[in-house]
Amino acid sequence: MPLTLVPGSGRGRLGTTKRVAKKIRQRSKYYVPVISACTNASRSRASSSPRCGSPTPPKLTPQAMSYANGLAHLPPVAGLWASAIPALVYGALGTCRQMSMGPEASLSLLMGNTINELIHSDPHSTPENADLEAIAISVITTFMAGAMTTVLGLLRLGFLDVVLSRALLRGFLTAIGCIIMIEQLVPLLGLAPVLHAHDDPPSQPLSKLVFILKHIRRANIPTTILSVCCISFLLGSRLIKRRLVKRPGGAWLRYVPEILICVVTVTILTGVFRWDLLGVDILGKLKGGKEFPFGLPLYPRSLKYVNETFSTAFVMAVVGVVDSMVAAKENSTKYGYPVSPNRELVALGSANLVASCITLTGTVPIFGSLTRSRLNGQIGARTQMASMITAILLILAALFLLPYLWFLPRAVLASVITLVVYSLLDEAPHDIIYFWKMKAWTDFLQMTGTFLLTFLFSIEVGVVASVCFSLLLVIQRSTQPRIKIIGRRPDSDDWVPIDEDDEAREEIPGVLVVRIREPLSFANTGQLKERLRRLELYGPNKIHPSEAPRRDEAKAVILHMGDVDDIDASALQILGELVQSYHERGVGIYFAHLRQDQLDKFRLVGITDLLGPHHFHPDLRSAMTEIESLGYGNTTRSRYV
């Protein structure tokens, strides 16, 4: 039987294929932004990518090594690999074009504390293969932090970054800065041998500070002098750059890598003059350079730490997400492009999942840095290619730089961390003064409480307490219905809140007119009865309930429902109980500006039958006319009847 061709069938299939291909291209550009960056970027943007990507590694390389070695207690090269590989992943998936990925001081410190608690909890015995155990802890913690962040993004919970207020975040970061400063006093003063030789080395910040002050006379003099010189150079360079960069012709100073200059200079001087023979602690041989650093993150040695590191991973995910979202939103606002919080979470989580595969040297959770992202924007980064170029340069540094760092003193790495501590503590006085001027005592107490909990107990306690307190504040504010007593302006039909307009004081004695300014739900309706009672007795002013009432009890209440877009079933039940309560007290309750669909709901729950149709009016004028016809407010000449 001959084959019969349907006219146009091949053309239809071809058209369908083209539409599918077009949709795939559109979706791929959306979910993998680097594709759009490569195809749509202008030639000027593309040519600027190498230029804007190159100044970041000189700053990030010493920082990453310092964080890994000085805070996380991992090999310095772990910081390089952990900064490079996630940056490649984020560059492909992230939506913030200026984002700079890398280890952060707070997360690195948290990782180091976790490793110390799990491995070195007994100061009298060190477990076999302690380095491998530390790597396993870092790998599984990073894996779980990445998995949690990814799940948050897939569940479209990108709004959770607003949970931590600025006051709580400032208190946490200030405490972190103080803890890091105390931790770094040991390598800065060359007291590491003294600390390790102690029978019961302190672990808490206060006890460690007391230990340092007690043994300050045993500090290594050459190490102390070197630390003072490095810190003075780094802080002095930063202050000079801040002043000169604003002057004409001084913009180029922004690109001067003072950290790299310090590291290279001191390393050369230490090798030439052999300061290590004077007691200056140096890095020595570093492993993991040209070896393949990747493996599966879930292996027997790492899996045994899942339960012990779960809470730490959660804390890291929360802090990292908040910091990263602040950086993403700031840059997107400044440079005029949108960012998707949900896709940001997926990108950050994916980056950490890939980072957890660095099983040779260990890793730390990697998130965005606000300060380095600002630098990226200032030097011209306009696409995600800047992040990927930075990653490539860091990989080259990890492969070929390590042999030249034999004589790098650990005190220099501690000095680099001290510079970061200065940045963490720099904004605290400004926030304290701001809260004091604004009389924001709640914010001030939040900041102080978070600082004390984090500093005196632990980072985990500080973060968990901050998150719980923030959630309680959100719940407390969401359960308070937004209602206002409104009054009519003289010689008009305009009704405004009487605490916002001095002229809106014309009130009918015994009649309370209240405007509800949000949808009613189970969350905010529960407090409606108490709020109405307080307004009825005390008015709009904040007066303690122990004082005598400032107003007579209302004889009638009018609820302006014009701003109530929705009323859920639970709110209707509570509202019915409220109406029943007023009805039993003999107080007339009236509704104005109620929509028809809401009136139908009132009829279903029996509110309409209880009150009668004359209690529902299309506007306030009609409601006031009804009330005055019943004898309320007739002491003055009526404007309604």
From TrEMBL:
Main location: membrane
Domain of life: Eukaryota
Membrane topology: Multi-pass membrane protein
A Pfam entry, by short name: STAS
UniProt entry tagged with the keyword DNA damage: no
Coiled-coil positions: none
UniProt entry keywords in alphabetical sequence: Membrane, Transmembrane, Transmembrane helix
BP term (GO), one: transmembrane transport
GO cellular component: membrane
Localization in the cell: Membrane
InterPro entries, alphabetized: SLC26A/SulP_dom, SLC26A/SulP_fam, STAS_dom, STAS_dom_sf
Spans through the membrane: 134-155, 167-186, 221-240, 252-273, 345-367, 388-407, 451-475
Domain STAS: 501-627
UniProt name for this protein: STAS domain-containing protein
Taxonomic lineage: Eukaryota, Fungi, Dikarya, Basidiomycota, Agaricomycotina
